[in-house]
Amino acid sequence: MHSGMTLIDLRSDTVTKPTTAMRKAMAQADVGDDVYGEDPTVNKLQDAVAALLGKKAALFVPSGTMANQLAIRVHTQPGQEVIAESKAHIVRYEQGAAAALSGVQLHCIPGDRGLVGADLVEAAIRPSDPHTVRTALICLENTHNGGGGTIYPLSTIERIRAVAVDRRIPMHLDGARLFNAVTATTLPAASYAQHFETVSLCLSKGLGAPAGSLLASNDLALIERARRFRRMYGGAMRQAGVLAAAGLYALEHHVARLKTDHDNAKRLARRLQHIPAITISPQHVETNIIVFDVPGHRLAPAALVAALKQEGVLINAVGGTSFRAVTHLDVSTEAIDQAADVFARVLR
Ligand SMILES: *Cc1c(COP(=O)(O)O)cnc(C)c1O
C-alpha cells in the first residue's frame, strides 16, 4: 500500500464507523437499566421499529445473529425442522446456532441468487405424518446477502405466505438489510413485514450504527419469551440506550441515503463490466452488494485480494472465483471511481 493512501473498504457494510453526529446522539442519550425495562432510549427505539414494521412490539438485541436465533428458538421445539435457503445467513454464518441453541435441523433449499419460489417451499414442507420430522418455521432473507443483495419480490413473498398459512407454518424474515429493499422498491417496510410472524432488522449494516438489531412481532407473548431467551443467550444489556440512540439516529438520517449506496454499487458494476478479466451482470446489482467473477486469473483469489489491497482497495473472496464488494456510508462516489481504476489496473 502506498504511504498516506486511505483504504477503500468494500468488504462489507458492517465496517462503517459512527459519524460525529451519531456519536453526539449516543453521548446525549437518556439511559436506564434495560433489564428492568427502564432505558427510555431503548424503549423509544423498540417502539419506533415496531411502528416502522407495523408490529406491536420489538426487542433490542446486540446482533442480527441473536435476533434470528431468538426467532428460531421461540418458533420451534428441539427435533423440528426449519426451512431456509442454502446460502442464507442463518445457514452459513451463524455457527450452526440453530442446531446448537434450538436443537433444530435446517432443511436447505437452493435459490436463484438466494430467492426461492413458493413451489420449492411447498415441496420442502414435510407431510404431517408420524414418520416425518415436523416443519416448524420458514425463514426468508431480504435483501439476500449471499445471493448478492437480491430483493425478494413482494409477489413471491405473498405466494410463499399463502402456502405457509395453508400449512399453518409461521414465517421469519431475516431483514438485516430490509431497509435496502425498502429504499430500492419504495415499498413500506410494513408491506414486507406483514407476511411474517417475526422480523429481524440490523442497525449495524448499511444504516451505520456500531451495534444493535431488533426482533419484531405482533405476538406480545412471543416477544416476552424472546426476552427470556435473550437473557439466557447473554444478550440482556444494561444502559444500552447509548447504542439505541445510535440506532434511532440511523433510522432518522441513514435510511434515505441508502439510495446513494445503491447508485454507487451500480456505478462500480458498470465500470467492472468493461474489464475483460471480470464476469459480472450489472442488472443483478439491485442494492449495495456486487458479486462478480474473475475466472481463470493467474492469481489465486486470496492473492488477488492481496494485490487489490496493495493498491488500497479491500474486497472479500467469497468462494470459487467469486468476489464480493459492498458499498456503504463510508465510501463516496469519488472513492468508487478510484476503486474502479484500481480494479482496471490490477486486473489488466
Ligand atoms: C449481517 C447479517 C446478519 C446478522 O449479523 P450480525 O453480525 O450477527 O449482526 C443476519 N442476516 C444477514 C442477512 C446479515 O447480512
UniProtKB/TrEMBL annotation:
Keywords: Lyase, Pyridoxal phosphate. GO terms for molecular function: L-allo-threonine aldolase activity. It holds the Pfam family Beta_elim_lyase. It is an enzyme of class 4 (lyase). Residues 9-293 form the Aromatic amino acid beta-eliminating lyase/threonine aldolase domain. Its EC number is 4.1.2.49. GO terms for biological process: glycine biosynthetic process; L-threonine catabolic process. The modification N6-(pyridoxal phosphate)lysine is found at K205. Signal peptide: none annotated. Coiled coil: none annotated. CDD domains: TA_like (cd06502). GO terms for cellular component: cytosol. Its cofactor is pyridoxal 5'-phosphate. Belongs to the threonine aldolase family. NCBIfam families: GntG_guanitoxin (NF041359), PRK10534.1 (NF007825). This is L-allo-threonine aldolase. It comes from Nitrospira japonica. The lineage of its organism: Bacteria, Pseudomonadati, Nitrospirota, Nitrospiria, Nitrospirales. The gene is ltaA.
